[in-house]
User: Fold these one by one.
Assistant:
Number 1:
Amino acid sequence: MATPQKSRLGRGLGGLISAAKPPQPAPAPLAAAPAASGYQEVLVHLVEPSPYQARREIVPEQVAELAESIRSEGLLQPIVVRRQGDKFQLIAGERRWRAFQHLKIKSIPARVVEASDASAASMGLIENLQREGLNAIEEAQGFASLVRDFDLTQETAAERVGKSRAAVANSLRLLSLDAEIQGFIAKNLLSVGHAKALLAIEDTALRAVLARRVIEEGLTVRATEKLGQAGKGRAAGGAGGRARALAPRDAAAVDSIQRRLTSHLGARVAVIHTPKKGRIVIEYRGNEDLHRLLEKLGVERPDSL
Protein backbone atom coordinates (compact mmCIF):
# COMPACT_ATOMS: atom_id res chain seq x y z
CA MET A 1 0.00 0.00 0.00
CA ALA A 2 1.35 3.40 -0.95
CA THR A 3 2.22 5.75 1.87
CA PRO A 4 -0.05 8.84 1.81
CA GLN A 5 1.77 12.07 1.06
CA LYS A 6 1.94 14.88 3.56
CA SER A 7 -0.24 17.96 3.27
CA ARG A 8 1.51 20.97 1.75
CA LEU A 9 0.17 24.17 3.19
CA GLY A 10 1.54 26.49 0.50
CA ARG A 11 4.22 29.15 0.35
CA GLY A 12 2.49 31.41 2.87
CA LEU A 13 3.36 29.00 5.68
CA GLY A 14 7.08 29.13 4.94
CA GLY A 15 7.26 25.40 4.21
CA LEU A 16 5.28 24.28 7.23
CA ILE A 17 4.22 20.66 6.65
CA SER A 18 1.18 19.01 8.19
CA ALA A 19 0.27 15.36 7.73
CA ALA A 20 -3.05 14.40 6.08
CA LYS A 21 -3.22 10.64 6.75
CA PRO A 22 -6.01 8.06 6.31
CA PRO A 23 -8.29 7.24 9.30
CA GLN A 24 -6.37 6.40 12.46
CA PRO A 25 -6.79 6.88 16.23
CA ALA A 26 -7.48 10.52 16.98
CA PRO A 27 -4.48 12.54 18.17
CA ALA A 28 -4.53 14.59 21.31
CA PRO A 29 -7.41 17.06 20.88
CA LEU A 30 -5.43 20.16 20.04
CA ALA A 31 -8.66 21.92 19.14
CA ALA A 32 -10.15 21.48 22.60
CA ALA A 33 -7.64 23.77 24.27
CA PRO A 34 -7.90 27.55 24.08
CA ALA A 35 -6.09 28.72 20.97
CA ALA A 36 -4.59 32.01 19.92
CA SER A 37 -4.46 33.13 16.31
CA GLY A 38 -2.09 31.09 14.16
CA TYR A 39 -1.76 27.81 12.27
CA GLN A 40 -2.64 24.50 13.89
CA GLU A 41 -4.38 21.19 13.36
CA VAL A 42 -8.01 21.21 14.47
CA LEU A 43 -10.33 18.24 14.86
CA VAL A 44 -12.66 17.99 11.87
CA HIS A 45 -15.72 17.19 14.00
CA LEU A 46 -15.24 20.40 16.01
CA VAL A 47 -15.55 22.58 12.90
CA GLU A 48 -18.95 24.00 11.97
CA PRO A 49 -20.03 25.66 8.68
CA SER A 50 -20.39 29.42 8.49
CA PRO A 51 -23.88 30.96 8.49
CA TYR A 52 -22.46 33.63 6.18
CA GLN A 53 -21.31 31.22 3.44
CA ALA A 54 -21.86 32.95 0.10
CA ARG A 55 -21.66 29.75 -1.94
CA ARG A 56 -25.20 28.40 -2.21
CA GLU A 57 -24.47 25.11 -3.96
CA ILE A 58 -21.73 22.60 -3.17
CA VAL A 59 -21.88 19.67 -5.60
CA PRO A 60 -21.03 16.34 -3.90
CA GLU A 61 -19.16 15.10 -6.98
CA GLN A 62 -16.83 18.10 -6.84
CA VAL A 63 -16.15 17.42 -3.15
CA ALA A 64 -15.31 13.80 -4.03
CA GLU A 65 -12.90 15.00 -6.76
CA LEU A 66 -11.23 17.40 -4.33
CA ALA A 67 -10.95 14.59 -1.78
CA GLU A 68 -9.09 12.41 -4.31
CA SER A 69 -6.75 15.31 -5.10
CA ILE A 70 -6.03 15.79 -1.39
CA ARG A 71 -5.49 12.04 -0.97
CA SER A 72 -2.85 11.99 -3.71
CA GLU A 73 -1.30 15.46 -3.52
CA GLY A 74 -2.03 16.66 0.01
CA LEU A 75 -3.78 19.84 1.18
CA LEU A 76 -2.21 22.87 -0.47
CA GLN A 77 -4.03 25.54 1.54
CA PRO A 78 -5.42 25.34 5.10
CA ILE A 79 -8.97 26.27 5.99
CA VAL A 80 -9.61 29.50 7.92
CA VAL A 81 -11.64 29.34 11.13
CA ARG A 82 -12.47 31.38 14.21
CA ARG A 83 -13.05 30.03 17.68
CA GLN A 84 -16.68 29.70 18.84
CA GLY A 85 -16.76 28.39 22.41
CA ASP A 86 -15.36 24.85 22.37
CA LYS A 87 -15.67 24.62 18.60
CA PHE A 88 -14.53 26.41 15.47
CA GLN A 89 -16.60 28.18 12.83
CA LEU A 90 -15.49 28.12 9.21
CA ILE A 91 -14.59 31.38 7.55
CA ALA A 92 -13.10 29.93 4.36
CA GLY A 93 -12.57 26.44 2.98
CA GLU A 94 -15.89 24.59 3.29
CA ARG A 95 -15.20 22.30 0.33
CA ARG A 96 -11.78 21.41 1.78
CA TRP A 97 -13.41 20.67 5.15
CA ARG A 98 -16.06 18.49 3.48
CA ALA A 99 -13.35 16.67 1.54
CA PHE A 100 -11.59 15.79 4.81
CA GLN A 101 -14.91 14.47 6.13
CA HIS A 102 -15.25 12.41 2.95
CA LEU A 103 -11.77 10.96 3.54
CA LYS A 104 -12.59 10.35 7.24
CA ILE A 105 -9.42 12.19 8.31
CA LYS A 106 -9.60 13.19 11.96
CA SER A 107 -7.89 16.60 11.86
CA ILE A 108 -7.32 19.33 9.30
CA PRO A 109 -4.72 22.12 9.02
CA ALA A 110 -6.31 25.47 9.85
CA ARG A 111 -5.48 29.10 10.25
CA VAL A 112 -7.19 30.27 13.44
CA VAL A 113 -8.06 33.98 13.48
CA GLU A 114 -9.95 36.38 15.70
CA ALA A 115 -12.83 37.96 13.80
CA SER A 116 -16.19 39.62 14.44
CA ASP A 117 -19.28 38.42 12.60
CA ALA A 118 -18.92 41.19 10.00
CA SER A 119 -15.21 40.49 9.55
CA ALA A 120 -15.81 36.75 9.24
CA ALA A 121 -18.46 37.34 6.55
CA SER A 122 -16.16 39.75 4.69
CA MET A 123 -13.18 37.39 4.86
CA GLY A 124 -15.23 34.46 3.60
CA LEU A 125 -16.57 36.50 0.69
CA ILE A 126 -13.10 37.85 -0.19
CA GLU A 127 -11.65 34.33 -0.17
CA ASN A 128 -14.35 33.11 -2.54
CA LEU A 129 -13.98 36.13 -4.82
CA GLN A 130 -10.21 35.67 -5.02
CA ARG A 131 -10.60 31.99 -5.83
CA GLU A 132 -13.23 32.82 -8.47
CA GLY A 133 -15.49 30.20 -6.98
CA LEU A 134 -18.72 32.20 -6.89
CA ASN A 135 -21.20 32.75 -9.68
CA ALA A 136 -22.60 36.26 -10.20
CA ILE A 137 -25.71 35.63 -8.09
CA GLU A 138 -23.77 34.14 -5.17
CA GLU A 139 -21.45 37.15 -5.30
CA ALA A 140 -24.45 39.52 -5.22
CA GLN A 141 -25.97 37.61 -2.29
CA GLY A 142 -22.67 37.88 -0.44
CA PHE A 143 -22.66 41.65 -0.87
CA ALA A 144 -26.32 41.79 0.16
CA SER A 145 -25.49 39.88 3.35
CA LEU A 146 -22.82 42.42 4.30
CA VAL A 147 -25.20 45.32 3.71
CA ARG A 148 -28.28 43.71 5.30
CA ASP A 149 -26.92 41.64 8.18
CA PHE A 150 -24.28 44.09 9.40
CA ASP A 151 -25.95 47.41 8.57
CA LEU A 152 -23.17 48.48 6.22
CA THR A 153 -23.51 50.99 3.40
CA GLN A 154 -22.69 49.84 -0.11
CA GLU A 155 -19.56 51.98 0.03
CA THR A 156 -18.37 50.40 3.30
CA ALA A 157 -19.13 46.90 2.03
CA ALA A 158 -17.17 47.66 -1.14
CA GLU A 159 -14.18 48.86 0.90
CA ARG A 160 -14.21 45.66 2.99
CA VAL A 161 -13.94 43.41 -0.07
CA GLY A 162 -11.71 45.66 -2.18
CA LYS A 163 -14.31 46.48 -4.82
CA SER A 164 -15.60 49.79 -6.13
CA ARG A 165 -18.97 51.02 -4.88
CA ALA A 166 -20.28 50.94 -8.46
CA ALA A 167 -19.27 47.27 -8.83
CA VAL A 168 -21.13 46.35 -5.64
CA ALA A 169 -24.19 48.42 -6.62
CA ASN A 170 -24.35 46.79 -10.08
CA SER A 171 -23.98 43.36 -8.52
CA LEU A 172 -26.82 44.00 -6.06
CA ARG A 173 -29.12 45.02 -8.92
CA LEU A 174 -29.08 41.41 -10.12
CA LEU A 175 -31.10 40.44 -7.04
CA SER A 176 -34.03 42.55 -8.30
CA LEU A 177 -34.50 40.03 -11.13
CA ASP A 178 -37.03 37.27 -10.55
CA ALA A 179 -35.85 33.89 -9.25
CA GLU A 180 -36.03 32.14 -12.63
CA ILE A 181 -33.68 34.63 -14.30
CA GLN A 182 -31.34 34.58 -11.29
CA GLY A 183 -31.19 30.81 -11.74
CA PHE A 184 -30.20 31.23 -15.40
CA ILE A 185 -27.41 33.62 -14.39
CA ALA A 186 -26.20 31.33 -11.60
CA LYS A 187 -25.92 28.46 -14.10
CA ASN A 188 -24.07 30.69 -16.60
CA LEU A 189 -26.89 30.40 -19.15
CA LEU A 190 -27.15 34.20 -19.11
CA SER A 191 -24.19 36.55 -18.72
CA VAL A 192 -24.09 39.60 -16.47
CA GLY A 193 -24.27 41.63 -19.70
CA HIS A 194 -27.54 39.91 -20.61
CA ALA A 195 -28.79 40.58 -17.09
CA LYS A 196 -28.09 44.31 -17.40
CA ALA A 197 -30.05 44.39 -20.67
CA LEU A 198 -32.96 42.58 -19.03
CA LEU A 199 -32.94 44.96 -16.07
CA ALA A 200 -33.87 47.76 -18.46
CA ILE A 201 -37.20 46.02 -19.09
CA GLU A 202 -39.74 46.96 -16.43
CA ASP A 203 -42.41 44.43 -17.43
CA THR A 204 -41.45 41.33 -15.42
CA ALA A 205 -43.53 38.95 -17.55
CA LEU A 206 -41.92 40.25 -20.74
CA ARG A 207 -38.51 40.03 -19.08
CA ALA A 208 -39.04 36.35 -18.24
CA VAL A 209 -40.13 35.49 -21.79
CA LEU A 210 -37.22 37.40 -23.28
CA ALA A 211 -34.73 35.68 -20.96
CA ARG A 212 -35.89 32.27 -22.14
CA ARG A 213 -35.74 33.43 -25.75
CA VAL A 214 -32.16 34.68 -25.30
CA ILE A 215 -31.12 31.21 -24.10
CA GLU A 216 -33.11 29.29 -26.72
CA GLU A 217 -31.79 31.35 -29.64
CA GLY A 218 -28.31 32.08 -28.23
CA LEU A 219 -28.81 35.84 -28.58
CA THR A 220 -25.94 38.24 -27.93
CA VAL A 221 -26.09 41.02 -25.37
CA ARG A 222 -26.48 43.56 -28.17
CA ALA A 223 -29.40 41.65 -29.67
CA THR A 224 -30.99 41.40 -26.23
CA GLU A 225 -30.70 45.17 -25.79
CA LYS A 226 -32.37 45.75 -29.17
CA LEU A 227 -35.24 43.41 -28.34
CA GLY A 228 -35.75 45.16 -25.03
CA GLN A 229 -35.98 48.51 -26.80
CA ALA A 230 -38.33 47.20 -29.49
CA GLY A 231 -41.38 47.06 -27.22
CA LYS A 232 -43.72 44.36 -25.99
CA GLY A 233 -45.12 43.05 -29.23
CA ARG A 234 -41.86 42.65 -31.13
CA ALA A 235 -39.79 41.62 -28.11
CA ALA A 236 -42.12 38.73 -27.27
CA GLY A 237 -41.58 37.40 -30.81
CA GLY A 238 -42.71 33.81 -30.90
CA ALA A 239 -45.03 34.37 -27.97
CA GLY A 240 -47.49 36.00 -30.38
CA GLY A 241 -46.98 39.48 -29.00
CA ARG A 242 -48.19 38.50 -25.57
CA ALA A 243 -45.67 38.00 -22.79
CA ARG A 244 -46.46 35.07 -20.55
CA ALA A 245 -44.35 34.06 -17.57
CA LEU A 246 -44.53 30.59 -16.05
CA ALA A 247 -47.30 30.18 -13.50
CA PRO A 248 -45.95 29.84 -9.93
CA ARG A 249 -46.99 26.17 -9.82
CA ASP A 250 -45.20 25.42 -13.12
CA ALA A 251 -42.11 27.37 -12.02
CA ALA A 252 -41.98 25.35 -8.79
CA ALA A 253 -42.26 22.10 -10.78
CA VAL A 254 -39.43 23.12 -13.11
CA ASP A 255 -37.29 24.08 -10.09
CA SER A 256 -37.99 20.68 -8.52
CA ILE A 257 -36.95 18.90 -11.72
CA GLN A 258 -33.72 20.92 -11.83
CA ARG A 259 -32.86 20.00 -8.24
CA ARG A 260 -33.55 16.30 -8.78
CA LEU A 261 -31.53 16.16 -12.00
CA THR A 262 -28.66 18.03 -10.36
CA SER A 263 -28.66 15.56 -7.46
CA HIS A 264 -28.96 12.51 -9.74
CA LEU A 265 -26.22 13.55 -12.17
CA GLY A 266 -23.91 15.27 -9.70
CA ALA A 267 -23.73 18.29 -12.04
CA ARG A 268 -25.50 21.61 -12.40
CA VAL A 269 -28.62 21.23 -14.54
CA ALA A 270 -30.89 23.94 -15.93
CA VAL A 271 -34.35 23.29 -17.34
CA ILE A 272 -35.61 26.02 -19.69
CA HIS A 273 -39.30 25.29 -20.12
CA THR A 274 -42.09 26.81 -22.20
CA PRO A 275 -45.49 25.24 -23.00
CA LYS A 276 -44.37 24.45 -26.57
CA LYS A 277 -40.70 23.58 -26.23
CA GLY A 278 -37.76 23.64 -23.85
CA ARG A 279 -34.18 22.68 -23.22
CA ILE A 280 -32.18 20.82 -20.57
CA VAL A 281 -28.63 22.11 -20.10
CA ILE A 282 -26.08 20.02 -18.18
CA GLU A 283 -22.81 21.60 -17.02
CA TYR A 284 -19.64 19.50 -16.90
CA ARG A 285 -15.97 20.15 -16.13
CA GLY A 286 -13.54 18.68 -18.62
CA ASN A 287 -13.38 15.36 -20.44
CA GLU A 288 -13.37 13.15 -17.35
CA ASP A 289 -16.53 14.72 -16.01
CA LEU A 290 -18.15 14.40 -19.46
CA HIS A 291 -17.25 10.70 -19.55
CA ARG A 292 -18.80 10.25 -16.09
CA LEU A 293 -22.03 11.93 -17.22
CA LEU A 294 -22.20 9.87 -20.41
CA GLU A 295 -21.84 6.68 -18.36
CA LYS A 296 -24.54 7.89 -15.98
CA LEU A 297 -26.86 8.58 -18.93
CA GLY A 298 -26.08 5.24 -20.59
CA VAL A 299 -24.46 6.88 -23.64
CA GLU A 300 -21.43 5.27 -25.28
CA ARG A 301 -18.24 7.24 -24.85
CA PRO A 302 -16.70 8.56 -28.12
CA ASP A 303 -13.16 7.52 -29.01
CA SER A 304 -12.07 11.08 -29.81
CA LEU A 305 -12.53 12.47 -26.27
Number 2:
Amino acid sequence: MYKKILIPTDGSEYTKAATMQGLELAKLTGAEVTALFVVDDTTYINFPFGPMAPDLTMVLEDEGKKAVGSVRAEGEKMGVKTATSMKRGSPANVIIEESKYFDLVVMGTLGRSGVSKLLLGSVAEKVIRFAQCPVLVVRNAEMHK
Protein backbone atom coordinates (compact mmCIF):
# COMPACT_ATOMS: atom_id res chain seq x y z
CA MET A 1 0.00 0.00 0.00
CA TYR A 2 1.87 3.09 1.21
CA LYS A 3 5.58 2.90 1.98
CA LYS A 4 6.51 6.59 1.89
CA ILE A 5 4.18 9.40 2.96
CA LEU A 6 4.94 13.11 2.61
CA ILE A 7 3.37 15.46 5.15
CA PRO A 8 3.92 19.11 4.21
CA THR A 9 3.53 21.41 7.20
CA ASP A 10 3.68 25.12 7.84
CA GLY A 11 3.34 24.69 11.59
CA SER A 12 -0.12 26.28 11.62
CA GLU A 13 -3.33 24.92 13.08
CA TYR A 14 -4.41 24.13 9.51
CA THR A 15 -1.86 21.33 9.25
CA LYS A 16 -2.30 19.64 12.64
CA ALA A 17 -5.25 17.43 11.67
CA ALA A 18 -3.46 16.39 8.47
CA THR A 19 -0.31 15.58 10.42
CA MET A 20 -2.20 13.29 12.76
CA GLN A 21 -4.10 11.62 9.91
CA GLY A 22 -0.88 11.08 7.98
CA LEU A 23 0.90 9.62 10.98
CA GLU A 24 -2.04 7.32 11.81
CA LEU A 25 -2.10 6.10 8.21
CA ALA A 26 1.66 5.52 8.33
CA LYS A 27 1.32 3.55 11.55
CA LEU A 28 -1.43 1.36 10.06
CA THR A 29 0.48 0.69 6.83
CA GLY A 30 4.03 0.59 8.20
CA ALA A 31 4.98 3.56 6.02
CA GLU A 32 7.79 6.00 6.64
CA VAL A 33 6.91 9.69 6.88
CA THR A 34 8.79 12.75 5.74
CA ALA A 35 7.70 16.07 7.24
CA LEU A 36 8.38 18.89 4.79
CA PHE A 37 8.57 22.62 5.46
CA VAL A 38 9.04 24.98 2.54
CA VAL A 39 10.68 28.34 3.20
CA ASP A 40 8.43 30.39 0.95
CA ASP A 41 10.60 32.59 -1.27
CA THR A 42 7.52 34.60 -2.26
CA THR A 43 7.56 36.03 1.27
CA TYR A 44 10.40 38.27 0.14
CA ILE A 45 8.65 39.78 -2.88
CA ASN A 46 7.08 42.71 -1.04
CA PHE A 47 9.70 42.93 1.69
CA PRO A 48 12.29 45.72 1.38
CA PHE A 49 15.71 44.13 1.20
CA GLY A 50 18.38 45.44 3.47
CA PRO A 51 19.72 44.60 6.87
CA MET A 52 16.45 42.89 7.89
CA ALA A 53 16.46 40.28 5.08
CA PRO A 54 18.84 37.82 6.80
CA ASP A 55 16.81 38.11 10.00
CA LEU A 56 13.61 37.25 8.11
CA THR A 57 15.29 34.18 6.61
CA MET A 58 16.38 33.03 10.06
CA VAL A 59 12.87 33.53 11.45
CA LEU A 60 11.36 31.46 8.63
CA GLU A 61 13.97 28.73 9.03
CA ASP A 62 13.37 28.60 12.80
CA GLU A 63 9.62 28.35 12.16
CA GLY A 64 10.30 25.50 9.77
CA LYS A 65 12.51 23.61 12.22
CA LYS A 66 9.76 23.85 14.85
CA ALA A 67 7.09 22.70 12.38
CA VAL A 68 8.93 19.60 11.14
CA GLY A 69 10.25 18.88 14.63
CA SER A 70 6.71 18.77 15.93
CA VAL A 71 5.73 16.22 13.26
CA ARG A 72 8.80 14.12 14.06
CA ALA A 73 8.02 14.21 17.80
CA GLU A 74 4.44 13.06 17.19
CA GLY A 75 5.70 10.33 14.88
CA GLU A 76 8.16 9.09 17.49
CA LYS A 77 5.38 8.92 20.10
CA MET A 78 3.41 6.73 17.69
CA GLY A 79 6.34 4.55 16.68
CA VAL A 80 6.40 5.89 13.11
CA LYS A 81 9.75 6.39 11.39
CA THR A 82 9.77 10.10 10.59
CA ALA A 83 12.34 12.15 8.70
CA THR A 84 12.36 15.92 8.24
CA SER A 85 13.13 18.07 5.23
CA MET A 86 13.34 21.79 4.63
CA LYS A 87 13.37 23.25 1.11
CA ARG A 88 13.20 26.73 -0.40
CA GLY A 89 10.80 27.91 -3.08
CA SER A 90 7.12 28.12 -3.80
CA PRO A 91 5.35 25.71 -1.40
CA ALA A 92 3.05 24.25 -4.06
CA ASN A 93 5.85 23.77 -6.59
CA VAL A 94 8.20 22.18 -4.07
CA ILE A 95 5.51 19.78 -2.79
CA ILE A 96 4.61 18.82 -6.37
CA GLU A 97 8.29 18.21 -7.22
CA GLU A 98 8.81 16.13 -4.06
CA SER A 99 5.63 14.11 -4.69
CA LYS A 100 7.42 11.95 -7.27
CA TYR A 101 9.40 10.33 -4.44
CA PHE A 102 6.33 9.39 -2.37
CA ASP A 103 3.31 7.10 -2.50
CA LEU A 104 0.99 9.64 -0.86
CA VAL A 105 0.90 13.31 0.15
CA VAL A 106 -1.20 14.09 3.23
CA MET A 107 -1.73 17.79 3.72
CA GLY A 108 -3.97 20.29 5.39
CA THR A 109 -5.42 23.38 3.90
CA LEU A 110 -2.16 25.31 3.95
CA GLY A 111 -2.19 29.03 3.52
CA ARG A 112 -2.88 31.89 5.83
CA SER A 113 -4.60 34.48 3.66
CA GLY A 114 -8.26 35.33 4.14
CA VAL A 115 -9.72 33.57 1.12
CA SER A 116 -7.70 30.39 1.61
CA LYS A 117 -9.03 30.12 5.15
CA LEU A 118 -12.52 29.86 3.69
CA LEU A 119 -11.72 27.76 0.64
CA LEU A 120 -9.42 24.83 0.07
CA GLY A 121 -6.33 26.98 -0.36
CA SER A 122 -4.29 27.66 -3.43
CA VAL A 123 -1.38 25.45 -2.32
CA ALA A 124 -3.58 22.41 -1.68
CA GLU A 125 -5.53 22.99 -4.89
CA LYS A 126 -2.39 23.19 -7.02
CA VAL A 127 -0.88 20.10 -5.36
CA ILE A 128 -4.09 18.11 -5.97
CA ARG A 129 -3.99 19.03 -9.65
CA PHE A 130 -0.31 18.38 -10.36
CA ALA A 131 1.15 15.96 -7.78
CA GLN A 132 2.67 12.77 -9.15
CA CYS A 133 1.07 10.60 -6.46
CA PRO A 134 -2.30 10.54 -4.68
CA VAL A 135 -3.07 13.47 -2.37
CA LEU A 136 -5.19 13.34 0.77
CA VAL A 137 -6.32 16.78 1.94
CA VAL A 138 -7.49 16.84 5.53
CA ARG A 139 -9.78 19.56 6.66
CA ASN A 140 -9.19 20.76 10.21
CA ALA A 141 -12.76 20.72 11.57
CA GLU A 142 -11.88 22.96 14.52
CA MET A 143 -10.70 25.70 12.17
CA HIS A 144 -13.87 25.64 10.05
CA LYS A 145 -16.54 25.95 12.73
